[in-house]
Design brief:
The chain has 423 residues and is an alpha/beta fold. The protein has three domains: 199 residues, Vaccinia Virus protein VP39 (Rossmann fold, 3-Layer(aba) Sandwich), CATH 3.40.50; 55 residues, no CATH class; 105 residues, no CATH class. It has 19 helices and twelve strands. The radius of gyration is 23 Å and the shape is globular.
């Protein structure tokens, strides 16, 4: 049957039965994929929602559209002690996911072949759900959000994403072009072969304009998930907020929120712009950013039941009387400890990829690495860090206090450190 006569779910089934995605070796560990584990962390998402550090042990987590199970493994690694449930349309994908989790020793798990819109058939209520690279393929993404909301616990969180219309516009155009020349009506492998031939025949400047790089698209899956992705759709920030309102869900944050800062786009923000920004809603600020810099493939977001949470900014007293810790996925990662200690030894900045950081990269100067070092042992009173900064000799107590609070606040914006107030 030609693929153009199939529904979106049937096309997805056909593709991912043949090519479970992503193609990651079964033996590969997810423990060093910290930026991705960040997105799958229940504790991180709940901190955004409540300003409380809530452990995942005993919680019930769902990886919807699990694919080959790579993200399911990251969810399991990022949430020790949680029960992990995963499903996909593709039996081949579900089988591979189960094999992957068993291989890495995770047994508190359940696996299902299921359509997202039939999620309530499981009879399970979830504390956290992650749906990656699926929502924008549905005929009606709002229905997908409603399906997840129906099985979301009152204090639960959904993490999902949408393709960004502005950033991905070249691929949408090329999908339409390949639709016109019949490449959605052939077998996936044939379509991928034809795309390579087509792109390789274009004038160099034309190929560059349509983002063709043969080194990037060596594997069929990369072509099929970009140039030949059936039912792919793009959305904007206003689209997201409209869909959430229709689904009865409340916006918590973008997963990479600091990387959507309008102020970061200016050498110096003009005063008239600053005044306008102060009056804007979160949606308006995010929309202005995407109009100026449509650099993100995904609008990646955390949401909850509308009106179920409200957090206020920390006061200086909260910081001074509280304790801080590194994000739990860092505390439990031996590679992070090794690389941090090596940077300390070499007296150089510590740099790493981190989803919460501006432009996806975090760099901590050597002097701050030293007074932050007690956090490697676990939760530490802020006053202890201030004392450590003072004893380094270059700052008096007042200046050290200002520096420590300012820097900790910035790291907390990135969800790199989490604050436990004294109350």
């Amino acid at each position: 049957m030609p693929s153009s006569t199939l529904s979106a779910s049937e096309r997805a089934f056909s593709l991912y039965e043949a090519l479970p995605y992503p193609n990651v070796p079964l033996s590969q560990t997810a423990r060093n994929a910290l930026p991705e584990m960040f997105k799958m962390s229940y504790t991180t998402a709940q901190y955004v929602r409540t300003h409380a550090v809530i452990e995942p042990e005993g919680k019930v987590l769902l990886n919807a559209g699990c694919g080959s199970g790579w993200e399911t493994l990251m969810m399991a690694e990022a949430n020790p002690g949680a029960k992990i449930v995963a499903f996909d349309l593709s039996p081949a994908s579900v089988k591979l996911t189960e094999e992957r989790l068993r291989y890495h020793g995770f047994t508190n798990t359940e696996f299902y072949v299921l359509n997202l819109l039939e999620l309530d058939r499981l009879g399970i209520q979830f504390d956290f759900m992650s749906l990656n690279d699926v929502l924008y393929l549905l005929e009606d993404p709002t229905e997908g959000l409603r399906a997840m909301k129906r099985v979301l616990k009152p204090e639960g969180i959904i993490r999902a994403n949408l393709h960004h219309r502005y950033q991905r516009q070249v691929f949408f155009r090329m999908q339409a072009a390949f639709q016109k020349i019949g490449q959605f009506d052939v077998a996936p492998a044939t379509g991928a072969k034809h795309v390579r031939e087509f792109m390789g025949s274009l004038q160099e400047e034309v190929a560059k304009a349509v983002l063709w790089d043969p080194l990037t698209y060596k594997e069929d899956a990369a072509i099929l998930n970009n140039y030949l992705l059936s039912n792919d759709k793009g959305f904007t920030i206003p689209d997201l907020f409209r869909m959430l309102q229709e689904a009865g869900l409340g916006f918590l944050s973008l997963v990479d929120m600091p990387d959507w800062s309008v102020e970061s786009l200016f050498r110096e923000v003009p005063e008239f712009v600053r005044r306008k920004l102060e009056a804007m809603s979160p949606m308006e600020r995010l929309h202005l950013y995407e109009l100026l810099r449509p650099a993100h493939r995904l609008i990646d977001f955390w949401v909850d039941h509308a009106g179920s949470s409200l957090v206020f900014p920390w006061s200086d007293e909260d910081w001074l009387e509280g304790s801080v810790q590194f994000n739990p996925i860092l505390l439990d990662n031996s590679r992070f400890h090794q690389e941090y200690n090596q940077a300390l030894k070499d007296n150089r900045p510590y740099e790493m990829q981190w989803t919460g950081a501006t432009h996806g990269r975090l760099s901590i100067p050597p002097d701050k690495l030293k007074w932050l070092a007690p956090l490697l042992q676990g939760q530490t009173p802020v006053k202890v860090l201030i004392q450590a900064a003072t004893e380094m000799g270059s700052l008096d107590e007042e200046k050290a206090t200002d520096e420590v609070l300012t820097y900790l606040s910035a790291l907390e914006d990135f969800l790199f450190v989490l604050l436990q107030p004294s109350f």
